[in-house]
Amino acid sequence: MRILIFGINYSPELTGIGKYTGEMGSWLAGRGHDIHVVTAVPYYPEWKVHTAYQGKKWHTENIDGAKVHRIPLYVPEQVDSKKRIIHEFSFILNIVPVWLKFLFFKKKFDLVFCVAPPFHLGFLPLLYSKYRDVPMISHVQDLQVDAAKELEMIKNKTFLDIMFSLEHFILSKSTRVSTISLGMEQKIAVKGIKKQKQILFPNWVDENNIKPLPVEQSLRSEFGISLTDKVILYSGNLGEKQGLESIIEVAGQYKDRKDVYFLIVGSGGAKEKLQQMVNDKRLTQVKFYPLQPYEKLSALLATADVHLVLQKKSAADLVMPSKLTGILAAGGCAIVTAEPGTSLHTVIDEYNMGILIEPESVEELGRSIDIAINNDLSHYKKNARAYAEQFLSKQSILLKFEEDIKDIINNS
């Protein structure tokens, strides 16, 4: 099959949407499909163009057999709602020359696959789909407009109504709509997109590469932490949706404990704020580290006694945390903020593979950490690994999706 992928994030980004889109593109290319990707120069989650790509404009590279067409874009140093809108529109505007080349001068693709967010990126692949008469899948990793409303990033009702209308237009005109969880499917159905038109395409984990390791093989020695110390780990994007300030508040309660460490590994817009909070409180047991390379991920996850998967109450069920897949595959126990009724709460509770707490509660977080570091968590860890092996296998999920793509192409 000849497939054209649109998305603002792609490999070599190590976290978030780019990780999954990149792995999908590489996997499909490895299966012999002709894969072309239109994406930005990598910048996430640091919100800084990666060193190897700085100064580069429009160019094409080969990643694991996929032809990746890179687009320059504006990347703000400090992210807010207005700058993010400019950031996304700069990417879409800079796509146009490449898009026109594919539209008029290149051999027709069998299918177009577009990843949201940004949701409005969908207009260009949708126009390609209609003009060249090929099916299009809109893949929703994050309900961006819902999140902007619930997190009060955008408060103008008229503007929000316009964005919801544009989002509905793209989804309704797409051949199929895929998304990553049952909760997201339900929310998309509420928008008027029938369940029959949707495809469940969950985020996955390579359970053969990400696996449980003994603490002796972790990064504790590299981080200067003894094997007997207690370690609470947050790893991933340091953004506004997570409400990470609560970690610093709880860490203050352990200020006099020399055997308890809080590790924050990652990058993002909230990092400087968190570091300033740590400095203000003079917390020596809170340590910040950059994202670790993929080959060190199992060792990083083995460093923790307990993991943190946090998000604000207003973001509940809008985003299925991608970091959770790695934690489960590594046989980790996570403290997860989720409200009853959300798909995240349901799956953690049903399979008994983590500690569920109320979002945005410093008291609940502190209580759960105290329980976790003073009790045996082996049953959670065993259940987590078993769930990853049964439901999150990269090979199984991508094989099923490949069949879905074939069916869509054959029936279009």
Automatic annotation (TrEMBL):
Q: Which SUPFAM superfamilies match?
A: UDP-Glycosyltransferase/glycogen phosphorylase
Q: Which InterPro entries match?
A: Glyco_trans_1, Glyco_trans_4-like_N
Q: Per the record's keyword annotation, is Transferase included, yes or no?
A: yes
Q: Name one Pfam family in it.
A: Glycos_transf_1
Q: Which UniProt keywords apply?
A: Transferase
Domain of life, source organism: Bacteria
- Gene3D superfamilies linked to this entry: Glycogen Phosphorylase B (3.40.50.2000)
- Does the keyword Transport belong to this entry? no
Q: Which residues form the Glycosyl transferase family domain?
A: 218-385
Q: Where is the Glycosyltransferase subfamily 4-like N-terminal domain?
A: 15-204
Name listed for the protein in its UniProt record: WcaI family glycosyltransferase
- What is the native source organism of this protein? Flavobacterium rhizosphaerae
